[in-house]
Amino acid sequence: MSEIKITLPDGSVREYPSGITAHQVAQSISEGLARNIIAAKVNGQVVETSRPITTDANLTLLKWEDKEGKNTFWHSSAHLLAEALEALYPGVKFGIGPAIDNGFYYDIDFGDHKFTGDDFAKLEAKMLELAKKESAYIRKEVSKAEAIQYFTEKGDQYKIELLQDLNDGEITFYEQGNFTDLCRGPHLPNTGFIKAVKILNLAGAYWRGDEKNKQLTRIYGITFPKKSELDAHMLMLEEAKKRDHRILGKDLEIFAFDDDVGPGLPLWLPKGAAIIELLEGFAKKTEKEAGYQRVKSPHIAKESMYIKSGHLPYYKESMFPPMELDGINYYLKAMNCPHHHKIFAATPKSYRDLPVRYAEYGTCYRYEQTGELFGLMRVRSLQMNDAHIYCTKAQFEAEFKAVNELYLKYFKVFGIDKYVMRFSKHDPKKLGQKYINAPELWLETETMVREVLVNSGIPFIEVEDEAAFYGPKIDIQIWSAIGREFTLATNQVDFAQADRFDLYFINEKSEKERPLILHRAPLSTHERFIGFLLEHYAGKFPLWLNPDQVSILPISEKYQEYSEKVLNVLKKSDIRALIDDRSEKTGKKIRDAELKRVPLMLILGEKEQTDNTVTVRKQGGEDLGSMTIEAFVEYVNAEIEKQLN
RNA sequence: GCCGUUGUAGCUCAGGGGUAGAGCACUUCCUUGGUAAGGAAGAGGUCAAGGGUUCAAAUCCCUUCAAUGGCUCCA
């Protein structure tokens, strides 16, 4: 038998007989390793550990700790779930069952049976029982005809539908215990690796993601190679829930919803409004420095404008229904763009005026479907950190780059580091439907955007078919505490609306020329941004942004007067402070200030009153000792300065 | 909009065919206490709304509304 060379990740090369498996390679290193490997990556392709290797190869042995290892583990768990379901409820039909970031799911057609949360325990027990059998996952190559025959006999129309898109030679089955599934693999060596199982939740999901199709029952679960890891994961989920902006927003009295106001229409309580004002002040200052001019526009406009802008045909479904007045339909504005274009058109523009940058914290209304509403992250009324930049093609790169730099500046101030920059492009097949039919402009602007991104060294991913209808865009994707993905901010190119609104400037040659338009909203909407910040900071807003910066805690009523004196000094210095004058002990007052996430506490008693000082305790317990009131004001101002620069 | 779950005091929740419970918060009183919960008393609810079954409904059934986990969607 011929020898092959196996290169391990550390660069070492070992020789083995051809046909050796990853499992055997692991065994040759150590038995312990062999017991723990879940799958193997051979020349970049993940396969099961029992697959023979017949050529020279780079080999990575995948363990639970590896992302691909987890993926294989959870994918195999989905098969185990299916096996258990088939044992418990014979005749159920299966859709797809992939691994996801945290666990796996399987889409199931239960027929007439109703599967509910009460059945979770039974299902978990069955899965563990089957796991203990240590059934091997066996790979079988089958022909398309054989595969169709198998599922026809089984009566599983979903698998047959999936098979239609596959070709002979690429169809494999995996079998473990009494369950066989159509699957590309790879899988665990056997079910015994799965030691802990948790069925997480139940949801409806349309077959193939199409709402015209039948809705299947999706069962989410997660599994682990150790019980302790499951416990740790469940604890982590509990902690994440405590960070949920909906919980924190209520606890910290930031915002509220009310049945009489309506779903998706948040009410901002005084503390929430204070944060809004602070964010706006910061944005306005930054935008002023960057050469933006502020504009204002009304909340409603005539139908004709939205027809002209092209929004109405595309977005009618997500706009509030029109109000009719004197035979004319008016719509609540769902976007600021057309208003700004009208402002641009209101006065003549020369190339000398460009770039023109209009900024407005515009309030928009969008009729999001009820099921899409989610705390502050998806709402029906929103205040957007909007601006539109009108520039020449020659100015485009510099403007686009400046906007990107603005994003990065903001992200630094807020300490946002877990995000993905997503460059969304059009799909040429959908020109004229989802996208403005201007193929050359699409390619041209997409190239420009890519160049800016590449030149500025910002990491990004490119996705097809996610652009706005009027041009390519860059979205900043973030994740909520419970793992839901959102677009936080957006930066869009628009080469369509200048034409629609007949926007122009007079160029050097005294000719009319169309400007390029950039839409940008780095601070998102107040709603989504504050929702995000609540989770990002776990409620602990930094000093500059916290609605209550200082809590003054008199040790007893005797120091009330001195406390008020301190409060007045702070107020005069624009420091937001309040006195906790309840008849409670200091320990209690500190606890409550901590729970309200107040960054600084001033403890005032006999000593402070006599010396005309304050004793400062930072949120979390750090003791800054005693200082004069003036020194404290200086300290606060210095801290804020640091946070904003 | 679709599938599942839930709706009891300001909050977190228990209870459950026979006229409503706890803890925290709130109010008052006592206490004047130095770095994460001092004590006592009091006040608080058409049990989401509407309809039905029943001698009797917060409890069972139906409808609606809202929230929630997903799906679809997301300018």
List the SSEs and their pairings.
Blueprint: E1 3-7, E2 13-17, E3 20-21, H1 22-29, H2 31-36, E4 39-42, E5 45-47, E6 52-53, E7 57-62, H3 67-88, E8 93-94, E9 99-100, E10 103-109, H4 120-132, E11 138-141, H5 144-154, H6 157-164, E12 172-176, E13 179-182, E14 196-206, E15 215-224, H7 227-243, H8 245-251, E16 255-256, E17 267-268, H9 270-289, E18 293-294, E19 300-302, H10 303-309, H11 311-315, E20 323-325, E21 328-332, H12 337-346, E22 356-365, E23 381-391, H13 393-414, E24 420-424, H14 439-456, E25 461-463, E26 473-479, E27 485-494, H15 497-500, E28 505-506, E29 512-513, E30 516-521, H16 526-536, E31 550-554, H17 560-572, E32 577-579, H18 586-595, E33 600-604, H19 606-611, E34 613-618, E35 623-628, H20 629-644
Parallel strand pairs: 1-7, 18-22, 24-25, 31-32, 31-33
Antiparallel strand pairs: 1-2, 3-6, 4-5, 4-7, 8-10, 9-10, 10-15, 11-12, 12-13, 14-15, 16-17, 19-21, 20-21, 22-23, 23-30, 24-26, 26-27, 27-30, 28-29, 33-34, 34-35
Helix pairs in contact: 3-4, 5-6, 8-16, 13-14
The structure holds one RNA strand of 75 nucleotides.
Can you walk through the features of this model?
- The chain is α+β, with helices and mostly antiparallel strands.
- It folds into four domains: 61 residues, Ubiquitin-like (UB roll); 169 residues, Threonyl-tRNA Synthetase, Chain A, domain 2; 282 residues, BirA Bifunctional Protein, domain 2 (2-Layer Sandwich); 95 residues, 3-Layer(aba) Sandwich (Rossmann fold), CATH 3.40.50.
- Helix content is 36%, strand content 26%.
- Helix 5 packs antiparallel against helix 6, helix 8 crosses helix 16 and helix 13 crosses helix 14.
- It binds one RNA strand of 75 nucleotides through strand 14, strand 15, helix 8, helix 11 and strand 27.
